[in-house]
TrEMBL record:
It comes from the Bacteria. The keyword Chaperone does not apply. Keywords: DNA-binding, Transcription, Transcription regulation. This is FCD domain-containing protein. One of its GO terms (molecular function) is DNA binding. The keyword Transcription applies. Pfam families: FCD. The lineage of its organism: Bacteria, Bacillati, Actinomycetota, Actinomycetes, Propionibacteriales.
Length: 264
């Protein structure tokens, strides 16, 4: 069963208001509520605030304490706490994926290896015929881009990884993989493109994807898992070796902090 956040049903101003009530140690009346909205950059009026407070009461998020104002109900406190926890997790995740050092890039690849290997296993079990066709088109586009040396071919290659996540037919794995290969990782992917070109292995990833597709099409989950594991493990080795051979050119290319890990 899908769990929804009741705050998603509110207007942005109403979310600001209910969060402000949750942060206040005292009951919040219309005047204090208006001040809280103003401090948050929201223009409103006492009349509008009163209507919003009435709506929050009707949703069971707040309750009136005599003439003092509103406080959160137990349900409201639980909802606000859940939103705060989600915001903290999101902030922590965003920081983790800033990829500020070579060591963090390697950890990013290791995390992908652990997750995407299992997704490949599931994809081989659950893939539908139409998805096989879409993945085949992605591999063909990747192969062509690699052959002509088109800049950013690994970004083309990432389409295969997204489709594989979809083929696994698992919201959990799809969400995890999409998070790890989201737009914030584009700069890293472009630098991996540079590394592969410099090392003369620019077509290897496309070849890896072709073998992965064959295993998934053949419904061979163990082979698919192993191939994905080996594919991303190879990328880790490419990064490690390139970093060592070029005296941290990778650090400069990515604008990373020199962590002096000597990646070994």
């Amino acid at each position: 069963m899908t769990v929804t956040d009741p705050l998603d049903e509110l207007l942005p101003d109403e979310v600001v208001l209910v969060m402000a009530i949750g942060e206040s140690p005292h009951p919040v009346g219309a005047r204090l509520a208006l001040r809280a909205l103003t401090e948050a950059g929201v223009r409103s009026s006492e009349a509008s605030v009163s209507r919003m407070l009435g709506k929050l009461d009707g949703l069971g998020l707040t309750t009136q304490v005599g003439r003092k104002g509103r406080v959160l109900t137990p349900h409201g406190r639980a909802v606000v706490q859940a939103r705060r926890s989600r915001a903290r997790r999101s902030e922590s995740f965003e920081r983790a994926l800033e990829l500020r050092t070579v060591a963090e890039v390697l950890d990013w690849l290791r995390a992908r290896r652990a997750i995407e290997s299992e997704a490949a296993y599931l994809a081989a079990l659950r893939v539908q015929p139409e998805m096989v066709d879409r993945m085949g088109e992605a591999v063909a586009a990747h192969e062509h881009a690699a052959q002509v040396g088109r800049l950013g071919f690994r970004i083309v290659g990432m389409d295969f990884h997204r489709l594989l996540a979809e083929a696994a037919d698992s919201p959990v794995f799809q969400a995890l993989i999409e998070s790890l290969i989201a737009p914030r990782a584009v700069a890293v992917e472009q630098t991996l493109d540079m590394i592969l070109a410099a090392r003369g292995t620019i077509a290897d990833s496309a070849d890896d994807h072709r073998r992965l597709l064959a295993a998934i099409t053949a419904k061979s989950p163990d082979a698919a898992r192993t191939l994905m594991h080996d594919h991303l493990a190879r990328m880790e080795r490419e990064v490690e070796q390139f970093s060592q051979e070029t005296n941290n050119l990778l650090t400069s290319a990515l604008g990373l902090v020199d962590d002096s890990v000597g990646v070994n």
